[in-house]
């Protein structure tokens, strides 16, 4: 079974631009979550989508948004990029929203903002 | 603010020894606990998960839960140099799928 895939793997943008990241979950998984990982803050939860609806949201500004399509694929958008948005963005999928469902991570997209 | 705390390390153990990694969590209602391993430059890989009803052993790995002390541990027996990585403890807390600690860096010395 194929794992979680993310595109692109690497991205370089300049301040003020916007960026869209894509995530395809494991087949049969309907929940997709997004995380930001930085050396200082560690892994922080951005949001989770299930059945095309945002179910949970972390403490990030409105510049960070996402969506999920009917095939469970998800995209994340960051507008008006800031230097502090440089990070590894990780997508994780799980079967459903029940507490016991394990999350599996994709390889990540490394975003550098200049 | 729900939190998960881990000692950042590095924790250095000789090859063949037992590595003991720990984390504490603040949400008393948490019932699902996960350990991820992350090699440098890679994404986190799930290695163990336990629920509030007990400990779990899988090969060289044992995860233990102490609900009274809000404390989770991961034991790695017969540690190998390939176990050198950062180990992330994560807890399902409220509506957040996973709340992560900042990780403990483990170094296994050959």
Describe the structure.
The complex is a heterodimer of chains A (114) and B (110). Chain A is 0% helix and 53% strand. With 114 residues, chain A is mostly beta strands. In chain A, strands 2, 4, 5, 6, 9, 10 and 11 form a 7-stranded mixed sheet that branches. Chain A is globular and about 35 Å long. Chain B has strands at residues 4-6, 11-14, 19-25, 32-38, 45-51, 56-58, 61-66, 71-76, 85-93, 96-100, 104-109. The mean pLDDT of chain B is 92. Chain B has 110 residues and is mainly beta. In chain B, strands 2, 4, 5, 9, 10 and 11 form a 6-stranded mixed sheet that branches. Chain B has a 5-stranded antiparallel sheet with strand order 1-3-8-7-6, with no helix packed on it. Chain B starts with a strand and ends with a strand. Chains A and B meet through strand 4, strand 5, strand 9 and strand 10 of A and strand 4, strand 5, strand 9 and strand 10 of B.
Fill in the keyword field for this structure.
heterodimer, A: 114 residues, mainly beta, seven-stranded mixed beta sheet, four-stranded antiparallel beta sheet, B: 110 residues, 11 strands, 57% strand, globular
SSE order and pairing:
The complex is a heterodimer of chains A (114) and B (110).
Chain A: E1 5-7, E2 10-13, E3 19-24, E4 31-38, E5 42-50, E6 53-57, E7 64-68, E8 74-78, E9 87-94, E10 104-105, E11 109-113
Parallel strand pairs in A: 2-11
Antiparallel strand pairs in A: 1-3, 3-8, 4-5, 4-9, 5-6, 7-8, 9-10, 9-11
Chain B: E1 4-6, E2 11-14, E3 19-25, E4 32-38, E5 45-51, E6 56-58, E7 61-66, E8 71-76, E9 85-93, E10 96-100, E11 104-109
Parallel strand pairs in B: 2-11
Antiparallel strand pairs in B: 1-3, 3-8, 4-5, 4-9, 6-7, 7-8, 9-10, 9-11
